[in-house]
Each structure stands twice: as structure tokens, then as C-alpha cells.
Amino acid sequence: MKVNIPVLEIMTTDLVLLNTDDSLNKAEQLFKKHHIRHIPVVKGKVIVGMLSFTDILRISFADFADDEEEVETIVYNMFTIEQVMSKAPTVVSPTSTIREVAEILSEKEFHALPVVNKRTLVGIVTTTDILKYLLKQCDY
Asked: In the sheet where 38-43 sits, what is the strand order?
């Protein structure tokens, strides 16, 4: 099984991004529209944080209300993306190996890593990317 190939072989490069001044409503719409669980937060092309769908769920009380949409809007307006996101995320380079990335993801409590080249965000790699890669390797 090849685990020493660079993560650039499996990372996602067609990125969905948020800016620090975007709203949490926009974030939720992007999560649902693109069926994703993690969105890098950037200032320009520099990553400053990661927002997960779980982060959104933690602040949402919608499950306990009659009018979910109204409650979500009120709650989302109480917070900014910067307040909810994970700041200064662990990053990897495009040349980091799949094994290195798998080790980081297995030891930490998150499931996505931004891929950065010279401080510029170039991709994202998730536990799902790693699992899909490993499943392909089992077919050989």
C-alpha cells in the first residue's frame, strides 16, 4: 500500500471558502448546498481558521423551537464566523505524505486539514479523502 505519496494527489482543490466577514447564515447555506462538513476561512488567500458544520450545530438551538428558521437567524446574528471557527488551524503542505496527514487526523479531534503552500491555501484534505484513497489501494 502506497502511503508515502504526497497529499496533493488526493486533496480537494475546488474549494468552498468563507471570509471572516461572511455570515453564519451564508456558512450554513454553503454546507448544505455543497454537502460538505468543513470550510476554510480566509483573509485574502491566507487561511485564518476552519469552520465545521459541527461548529454551527453547537450554537444552533433550532431543534428545540417551533420556528427553526427564525431561531437560527437570531442565533446566527449573535455570533460572527471568527467567534465560532477554529482559529490557527493545523496545516499541511502539498508535499506532506498521506501517512503524515493520516497520523495527524488520527491523533486530533478534527477531520480536515488545510493544505498550504507558502502561506497560500491550495487545498483541503479530509478523513473521507484518506479513507477513499485507502479503499482504492485495497482493490489492487
From this structure: 18-19, 38-43, 46-52, 86-87
- For residue 87, give every residue at least 6 positions away whose Cβ sits within 8 Å of its Cβ, in sequence order, or none: 48, 49
Cα–Cα dist 31/48, whole Å:
18
Domains for the chain: give ranges and CATH numbers: 7-138 (3.10.580.10)
Q: Which residues pair with 116 in a beta bridge?
A: 121
Burial 96-112 (b: 16+ CB within 10 A, else e): bbbebbbebbeeeebbb
Cell of 9: 494527489
Q: How far apart are CA 54 and CA 12, in angstroms?
A: 20
pLDDT in tens, 80-138: 999 999 998 999 999 999 999 999 999 988 899 999 999 899 999 999 999 999 888 88
